[in-house]
């Protein structure tokens, strides 16, 4: 008797049915994720101008999936806080993500100027001895004082990011009395140094919001946030700004253009 037949004989008549059900559930979940990706892109790029998604039956017909698959996809978007189900209305968009480009070196206010007004709540500003990693990245002596700035940044009054910034002392001192509440640090750096910024090295990853970050950003504790580490250089190559920026992942989307080079 083949091994598969022995398994069926031992497990009983219900085993193949259970396996088939599990396979169907897995395939439905796979399709739901695929559909959620498409719908997420659609609603974040203005594909639902009236703020309401098409009816479930219309979505099922358009994407050639079952209504159960559509419901699972909408559940995924609901869990992300992007949509909500309103009785008598349907599924509506309740959140907006703002686009943040990764192919140009710009401050947050410059990047999002078309979407509203960015304000900064300066939570901490002062001097501190540079930790070893900061000293290495900014090319200063270990333990040398650097200027440290912590800001909560809001777009149209909503918390968007928590920025932790380290700047070499000879440049940062000039920023201590500057208007950090209404001006991007990038603009201040160019004004103070009299030189343009050149390039930045970035690392982007998802991290869980710690208790402090979650409270400041008004996000659920443990929620995923986008962590952007950015080391910015002047046009002459000198590193002048090391930042660790925590973005609310439900309010920002990162995008850029990549060119293939082998």
What do these coordinates show?
The protein is of the alpha+beta class and 262 residues long. It has 9 helices and 10 strands. The chain has a 6-stranded antiparallel β-sheet. A two-stranded antiparallel ribbon has the order 1-2. Strands 3-10 form a two-stranded parallel ribbon. β1 and β2 (90-93) form a beta hairpin. The longest helix is centred in the N-terminal third of the chain and has 31 residues, at 14-44. The chain is elongated and about 70 Å long. The N and C termini lie far apart (54 Å). Residues 1-12 have low confidence and may be disordered.
Task: Give the topology.
Layout: H1 3-11, H2 14-44, H3 56-63, H4 67-79, E1 83-86, E2 90-93, E3 98-101, H5 108-111, E4 118-129, H6 132-138, E5 145-155, E6 158-168, H7 169-172, H8 185-193, E7 197-208, H9 211-217, E8 224-234, E9 239-248, E10 252-255
Parallel strand pairs: 3-10
Antiparallel strand pairs: 1-2, 4-5, 5-6, 6-9, 7-8, 8-9
Number of continuous helical runs: 9
- pLDDT under 50 segments (min length 5)? 1-12
Helix and strand succession? HHHHEEEHEHEEHHEHEEE
**What structural category arises from helix and sheet content?**
alpha+beta
How many beta-strand segments? 10
- pLDDT average, as an integer? 88
Query: How many strands, which pairing sense, and closed or not: the largest β-sheet?
Result: 6 strands, antiparallel
Strand order of the largest sheet: 4-5-6-9-8-7
Report the helical percentage. 25-40%
Shape: elongated
What is the percentage of strand-forming residues?
25-35%
Ends distance: 54 Å
Q: Mind telling me the C-alpha Rg?
A: 25 Å
